[in-house]
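Risk mitigation, structural track. In case the binding assays with KG4 fail to produce interpretable data, a predicted complex structure has been prepared as a fallback.
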Amino acid sequence: MGSGEPCMIAARPGPVQDSAMRVLGIESSCDETGVAVYDTGIGGAAGLRAHAVYSQIALHAEYGGVVPELASRDHVRKLLPLIRQTLAEAGLSTADIDGVAYTAGPGLVGALLVGAGVARALAWALGLPAIGVHHMEGHLLAPLMEDDPPAAPFVALLVSGGHTQLVAVDAIGRYRLLGETLDDAAGEAFDKTAKMMGLPYPGGPQLAKLAETGTPGVFRFARPMTDRPGVDFSFSGLKTQVLLAWRGSDQSDATRADIARGFEDAVVDTLAIKCARALDAAGCNTLVVAGGVGANRRLRAKLQAMAETRGGRVCFPRPALCTDNGAMIAFAGALRLQAGQHDDASVRVAPRWDMASLPAV
Ligand code: KG4
Ligand code: ZN
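Fallback model:
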């Protein structure tokens, strides 16, 4: 929810669930339908019994971006088959599920309502507790699904198509925003820059792939807002710099790759500088990285090197769990359901929702 708006989603405390739970997770906030089953009795990476993601990339490609109404309709088509497929892969039936978690926001309202409606209906029919999960909390907790998870306190870098945030995690559910982007998100900058240079939608991963073949240093772009204190970001000026460089170039394939490399290096350096500052500010040495841009190879290597230099630790989810997926929703929901939290039976979503307003776990 935006600041000043009433909170529509208020997880209600209930009896703490001591026993293990198998939680069905449903993600439908944007252009990916994700379903997973996470089993807290197994825990760790093996606790993820099955997960499946259906991407709508092909559907939106001809429009160069996500068309909300088409996204909602496609979630309607794909969600139930994907739930059946995921349960079958896990070797489970609906009778084996102990709770349902779904993305309640932030995201596209119609897309969110599809997931929430299906999740709520399932929970009601099966007599199960269900909880609406904050999409960014899902991303943030995804690295904790891997083996040898970090313990709070830590700093989280959330880098997706809609968010670029540095968050101090004092405990699970207790989040303090340290800094965020003042304009474009890092993923959005990747996508827009790619589009400018004629790469097909969605451009971020394509631009990163192209950067692999580019020569570093041929194009050097600014590291925005690193020349002043603070951990906020701004990526829209960088995008303009790239546009000017591209327009003034020979626009050959080699130049496109060199520009892609220059752009990627600028974003990666900027993120790494701000992460180091955020760790200093929070007085800790563990960094957790999540969100689609967390799949970027050069970012992973740079942050790994930064953490090693400090004698600290950086934790990422596997690349498939960086981008949108149902596993992170099943896992985040499982932690809250186990703590006895759940929502009432009405279908409610929060297209805008401040993570700091979440209850502690
Ligand atoms: O977390 P996510 O799947 O969806 C949102 O919640 O936004 O993130 C998608 C974003 C897109 O902007 C996409 O271009 C970017 O993550 N992305 C990448 C890479 N893979 C995905 N950006 C840079 N390098 C990548 N390898
Ligand atoms: Zn996301």
